[in-house]
Every structure is written in C-alpha cells, then in structure tokens.
Amino acid sequence: VHSLPLFLDPASVRCLIVGGGEVATRKLTTLLDAGVECRVIAPVLHKELAQLVDDHSLAYERRPFEASDLDQVNLVIAATDDEGVNREIHRLAIEGGVWINAVDDVNHSTAIFPSIVNRDPVTVAISTAGYSPTLARRLRARIETILPSGMGRLALYLGERRAAVKRHLAEPSLRRDFWDSVLDGSIPDLVGAGRLDEADEAFEISMRGAQVSERRGLVSLVGAGPGNPDLLTLKALECLQRADVVYYDNLISDEVLDRIRRDARRVYVGKRRGVEGMAQRLINEMLINDAQDGLRVVRLKGGDPLVFGRGGEELEALKSAGIHFEVVPGVTAALGSAAFAGIPLTYRNSAQSVRFITAQLSNENSDIDWAELAREKQTLVVYMGLAELPTLTRKLVEHGMDEAMPIAVVSKASYPDQTIVIGTLSDIDERVKSEEVSGPTTIILGEVVGMGSTSSKDN
C-alpha cells in the first residue's frame, strides 16, 4: 500500500498555498470547494487566482515564502515554479510535522490530491499514488459514467433514517440485511426520481416487514475461479461483500481475498499436497454451526465449487442439517487454463468431447480406463497433475496414444506469472523440467493443443 486514504473534516484543515500561478489556482479551487481555510503567499498572483482571493476574502501576502509561514498551518501546497523553493518547503514541512503537497513531485509530497467524483455527500477519491495522474483521470471518467447523479440525494435520504432503523433493529447483522434489501429494491430509483412520498411509503413497508426475530443463516458455496479477481462472477463478488464469515481454500489468491468485506471473519481451511489439513468433517461442522447462528457464510473454493473439490460433500452435509444454501459457479481451472493458453477445448473434426480428470494415477488400486482415455477425437484436462505427469504420458502411450500427441502444461493460469509449456507426449516431461514449472497446474491433452500458444510470452 503506497498511501493511506483519509477523508478529513475541512474545518480541521488550515492550509497555506505557496505560489501564484495556474497550478496554485487549481489547488485553491479544490480546497475552497471543500470548505478548507486557506491563505496564499506569492510575489505575484495569476489573474484568476487574484479573483479567487478577492471573492473569498482570503488572507494574501505579496512576498516570498519564509520558514515561519508554516507555524499556524497543518497543510502546505508547494506550487511555485522554483524547484529549490519547493524542496525547501518540503524540508521545513517534514521538520514541523506539516503535510505537504509538492505539485507534480510525489517524492517531495506527504499528501496527494486524488481525482474526485463528487455526489455530495458521496465522494469517490481515486489515486495512483502519483504514478499516473492520467490513469487516475481515466478511472474518474469511467466512474462518473456509472455513478448516478442522484446518489447524493439517496445518501442524505438514508442518513436521515438511520436512527429510526437502529431503534427498530438492535442487531447489527439485521440492520445490514435491512439496508441491503432497501438498496436492492425500488427506493433508490424513487428517491432519484424525486418521488419522495412513494419512497417513504416503500420504506415504511420495508421497516414493518424487517426480520426482528431470528435471522436465517445461509451458506454460499462460491467458486473463486482460477485466481485472477477479474474472473470472479458478479454474484461471487456480492456474496463476498455480504459475508459474515468466509472459509477459504489454499489456492485462493490474495487479490480475491481483498474483495471480502473488511469486517468479515476469515478462516483458512486449505489443504495442500503432502500437508495434513483440517478434516473435512470439521469444516462441515463449522459451516453448519455458523449458519445455525444466523450468519451469512461463504465457503470460497478455487475454480468451481463442485468440480474436483469437496463441494459435493459439503453440499450433502448442509442438506442433511437443513441449512439454507446456494451454489455460485466459478470459472473452473480447465476453462481458465485453456482460455489463457489460447486453446479451444472442443473443435470440429478434432475434439467432440472433453474429459475432466483428477490425477490420482500412482495409486495402483485406482480404477482408470486408460484405453478409453487414450482414444482419439477428445480433449483430456487433468487437474493437479504435475507430479503425475510422467505416469500420465507413459500410460497413455502404452494404451495406444500417439507419442506425437500435443500436450500443454499450464501453471498459475490467469496470474501475471503464469507459465504455458507446450510439447508432445514424448518430450513434455523434459520441457517441464527445463522450465522449472511449479504451482497450481492443469494439463491439457489433445489435438486442439496445437492451436494454442507456443510459450507463456504469447499471451
């Protein structure tokens, strides 16, 4: 994290602007719009800045900056065209514990002005920590298009009713559910359209119907996809934002975990190869107990929750206990790996079917029909297969598959450091060793692999 976002009470800010040009004018305009007390020091004022000083009766001194000017302020804007002066202001500000914004000089700033989307009292601030003001501006423009102009009116409307809702619903979780239901209903549109009488009527109906008795718990089995947070579904994001507690697996990326509601409890229940994890029975019990306590529980699983995980067992346990549940599908590893490797899993005249299999190949008691797996015109996708790759290739060749059959090993699909190794049954082992492949891995095997990328760099 490069910066700490804060929204300050403007009445607590005493600001000094050093400089009299166009940049100082822009900064002063922003500060005055927020209601900040400002004074200006500069030998000469730009015409527009002079007008602002007159219009707002601001304190202005026509002279160069002096060290004592920082004595009565807690924020200074260094907006002169003299780099040496700006750096001296920075040095003195640091010594005096004063926040400084040195315009276009992030290395000599302890405070940065964000791009603002204003729907007063709703404010969205966007910052790139000074790395790319243009990107911040583009993000602001995008948010401007999706944030309704009436959002401020809605915030005021809801704020005026917070105390009444708190009296009516003492339990915080019930209040959160109530406000979610209000925002999901017709009230925002009614307020935005100025139809306040109808909004009031709808609000009263919602209040009367609010659950003041026992809250019904819910368990959501949510697929997190292959790791890239952009591949989360909208429903998955909604579940993460409403959760009281999230039980998550080993392969959930930090970027996905960052989407969880800040005050939700997080519990790691992951399992890794060669490491004894939490017993599935205990995981099932925790899901059930939390739901019986009226909590919104998310069981967050990599890929899709019902493909090669223990989702089926958890689903069965929830049904047996009479727990309300929902399943939120995710992009399973097979689909994510194929997409990021540019491999179509089916293709006319090459593959009319796809098989998803898990690599339990070393177990001599495993009931695997190798001849069926080795037949033509199909695509095989092997989950968690890196350690079993030599066995997989050997068995398929023994049962009739051509050694020249294309095969892809995709590691960390959708991550920035993903690796895609493409070869044939005869040489893929050596290629994988040469690339030092590690991490979550999916193997794709079939004629369709020849249509994919030849290396990680292609995608």
UniProtKB/TrEMBL annotation:
Residues 219-428 form the Tetrapyrrole methylase domain. Residues 119-144 form the Siroheme synthase central domain. Keywords: Cobalamin biosynthesis, Lyase, Methyltransferase, Multifunctional enzyme, NAD, Oxidoreductase, Porphyrin biosynthesis, S-adenosyl-L-methionine, Transferase. GO terms for biological process: cobalamin biosynthetic process; methylation; siroheme biosynthetic process. InterPro entries: 4pyrrol_Mease, 4pyrrol_Methylase_sf, 4pyrrole_Mease_sub1, 4pyrrole_Mease_sub2, CobA/CysG_C, NAD(P)-bd_dom_sf, Siro_Cobalamin_biosynth, Sirohaem_synt_dimer_dom_sf. Signal peptide: none annotated. GO terms for molecular function: NAD binding; precorrin-2 dehydrogenase activity; sirohydrochlorin ferrochelatase activity; uroporphyrin-III C-methyltransferase activity. It comes from marine metagenome. Pathway: Porphyrin-containing compound metabolism; siroheme biosynthesis; sirohydrochlorin from precorrin-2: step 1/1. Gene3D superfamilies: Cobalt-precorrin-4 Transmethylase, Domain 1, Methyltransferase, Cobalt-precorrin-4 Transmethylase, Domain 2, NAD(P)-binding Rossmann-like Domain, Sirohaem synthase, dimerisation domain, Siroheme synthase, domain 2. Residues 151-204 form the Sirohaem synthase dimerisation domain. This is Uncharacterized protein. It catalyses: precorrin-2 + NAD(+) = sirohydrochlorin + NADH + 2 H(+). PANTHER family: S-ADENOSYL-L-METHIONINE-DEPENDENT UROPORPHYRINOGEN III METHYLTRANSFERASE, CHLOROPLASTIC (PTHR45790:SF3), SIROHEME SYNTHASE-RELATED (PTHR45790).
